[in-house]
Amino acid sequence: MAKTRKIVLREDEMPRQWYNLAADLPNDPFMSPDGPVPAEAWAPVFPMNLVEQEYSTQRWIDIPEGVLELLTRWRPSPLHRAYNLEAAIGTPARIYYKNESLSPAGSHKPNTAVAQAWYNKEFGIKRLTTETGAGQWGSALSFACSLVGLECKVFMVRVSFDQKPYRKLMMQAWGGNCVASPSNETQAGRAILEKDPDTPGSLGIAISEAIEAAVTDPTGQTRYSLGSVLNHVMMHQTIIGLEAKKQLKIAGEKKVDVVIGCAGGGSNFAGLAFPFLYDKIHGADIDIIPVEPASCPTLTKAPYLYDHGDTAKMTPLVAMYTLGHSFIPPPIHAGGLRYHGMAPLVSKAVSKGLMSPQALHQLECYEAGILFAKTEGIIPAPETTHAIATTINEAKKAKEEGKEKVIIFNFSGHGLMDLTGYDKYLAGELTNYDLPDDVIKENLKELEGYPKP
Amino acid sequence: MAKTRKIVLREDEMPRQWYNLAADLPNDPFMSPDGPVPAEAWAPVFPMNLVEQEYSTQRWIDIPEGVLELLTRWRPSPLHRAYNLEAAIGTPARIYYKNESLSPAGSHKPNTAVAQAWYNKEFGIKRLTTETGAGQWGSALSFACSLVGLECKVFMVRVSFDQKPYRKLMMQAWGGNCVASPSNETQAGRAILEKDPDTPGSLGIAISEAIEAAVTDPTGQTRYSLGSVLNHVMMHQTIIGLEAKKQLKIAGEKKVDVVIGCAGGGSNFAGLAFPFLYDKIHGADIDIIPVEPASCPTLTKAPYLYDHGDTAKMTPLVAMYTLGHSFIPPPIHAGGLRYHGMAPLVSKAVSKGLMSPQALHQLECYEAGILFAKTEGIIPAPETTHAIATTINEAKKAKEEGKEKVIIFNFSGHGLMDLTGYDKYLAGELTNYDLPDDVIKENLKELEGYPKP
Question: Cα dist. B376→B5, B95, B369, B381 in Å?
Answer without folding.
Answer: 10, 11, 10, 14
